[in-house]
UniProtKB/TrEMBL annotation:
Keywords: Repeat. This is Pentatricopeptide repeat-containing protein. GO terms for molecular function: mRNA binding. Transmembrane segments: none annotated. Residues 81-100 are annotated as: Disordered. InterPro entries: PPR_rpt, TPR-like_helical_dom_sf.
Amino acid sequence: MFAKAVRWMAVKKPRPKMKPMGLQMPPELMYTIIDIAKEDGDHTISDTCDRLKNAGHMEDEEPLGEERDEPVHLAVSNYCDQTQGHKKDEEPLEEVRDESGNPMVRETCRLIGLRHIWNKKLEGELRHLLRSLNPHQLSSVLRSQSDERVAMSFFYWADRQWKYRHAPQVYYTMLELLSKTKLCQSAKRVLRLMIRRRIDRRPLDFCHLMVAYSRAGKLRSAMRVLNLMQKDGCGADLSICNTAIHVLIKAGRLEKALRFLDRMQRVGITPDVISYNCLIKGFCNANRVEDALKMIREMPIKGCSPDKISYYTVISFFCKEKRVQEVKELLKEMKIESNLFPDQVTYNLLIHVFSKHGHADEALVFLRESEEKSFRVDQVGYSAIVHSFCLDGRMDEAKIIIEEMIGKGYLPDVVTYSTLVNGFCRIGKIDQARKMLRYMYKTGCKPNTVTYTSLLNGLCKIGSSLEALDMLNKSEEEWWTPNVVTYSVVIHGLRREGKLKEACDLVMQMLGKGFFPTTVEINLLIHALCKEGKAGDAKKFMEDCQSKGCTINVVNFTTVIHGFCQEGDLESALSLLDDMYLTNRHPDVVTYTVVVDALGKKGNFEKANQLINKMLHRGFIPTPVTYRTVIHRYCEKGRVEDLVKLLDKMLVKQEFKAVYNQVIEKLCAFGKLDEAYKLLGKVLRTASKVDANTCHTLMESYLKKGLPLQSYKVACRMFHRNLIPDMKLCQKVSNKLIAAGHSDEGGKLLIKFVERGHTLPQYQ
């Protein structure tokens, strides 16, 4: 009890609030970046830390500064003149030692790996090891975890142990690890804990937090870190400023990064080559390569010479744009202006970038140039050129490069050979691909799964999917293991050739091997079966996939329901719709639209009304396809009154201005002109150009039926709404009226044009 009481007092004892250490900046040195905060909202990510907190792995900490929607300021102090003697005395960074081979570190990692079967004994062993580890060893334990969330969980578990507190180096390591992930909230909690424990915070720690926010897509929060850093009393230095520039460039905010650089220089923080390189990268990303070159040429004037990275960034941009001449000129400039000579790394970069973007000829030019200068191009460089030639289908040039490689003692590996096999298959030369496969065995280079998958894909493309299936079934004899891509390639080939039974059987075989096709692949097979009138087989295939643990979604169900509807089997379609509710796969608006269309086709409008009301009650918003489907079926059967009531309910959920235009035009198409005329008032409310076209359609329909007087009435209603009908159409109506003995109406129609200032064609 005493021990518990002491521990409770130690935990619950209130701590005095810390006063900011460091110099408070005068207002003239505060750089307002409110525009960054306002323009860039935070993007959400899955916060895995909440789960760890609920599991008891995380403490509730005090907030690290205010984060209201208020102006965010950055105190960029004059690091050279004003903050000397006012900043915290920073301890020199300890050298990171790799202790991963230490027996205690390995044993600790083993016990952490057994966390899913933890008991009191294992936890006691881990607690004992924890007290024996020094900070370097504990940091190695954290770095050894493949999942940073596991490292974070262990970090908080260790921090809760009796008579133990993490050394500052452990906090620094944890922040460094979290900066490589999107777990920005976890990084912020670690920083809060450092404040509570009064552990010195370095600018580098705030850099880690800023990078974590940036990785999570939260630019606004990332820039707030600058304000939090100033409130904490940590003096700004070049590293945090470079991080801020990097974050802005990654977010595509080049102009704000330039303004930030200008403010840095005004307050005395001199940018280095890293600062300029970030901006050069931003210029290239924004296709402002001339500005990037201008910055490189101005760097020596500002006391900072460009390095090779500065030039490589622009060179990479030129390579993507296939601007070889500019690359050569920039290489000369790099040599003359900056005394930087192209080396092996430079040429390897040029070869790889040109090859990556499909410019094999240009890459080959630089390969020859590097050889003339006695630079060694490695096997990877040759393979990159081979890959580029194969993508272009230039297999003869690719074979020449392969022969050259062999002649220079570079034996092609399985990746290079697989590229050749894929290249032959892309241009339909399957025999050459087979020969290459046999040659691989002959030279002792065993083909891998990628090699065989490329060959199977080539066979499927030329319509030999059964041969590909046979080769896949003999994979064990050939000592290679197919993967999910291999199965998918053959399945798609069988489906394209109409061999659906074999494709479905292969899916079952695939599931038996532990590979799961995607819902899209399953839906393609279901759709193909339904297209052949085998909706029953499609349903059975879907149920078999579901029973074997494959993911089945609402799209798969909808495809089968549509198949039953096309076959006229409404009973099976409605039964499957009920099954969706039972299996907690709720239909979407497409599902309802498909069933309503089938019900309308059969004339079962009572059930169709129920389904539409159910869809609206569940909150689904009708799509334009839904409107067109409902309008078509109801107009086809002449159920105009029911249609109007239904449309009024649908329009409450989603406004659709041209809905009654479609109704009138569809009624005209079905010859139900009287019903169309009754709805004309709903169209003439807006008097737009679309409404005029609808009225013209109704007028022409009346003329085709020999009812010019009804066309005249439609035109008069248009004039009444200040909507001018088509003059040529009205002349046709007038001629028909005069021919039918209605000369007064015919004359009045043309007079209405004259009254509105229009000149009739015969009097022009």
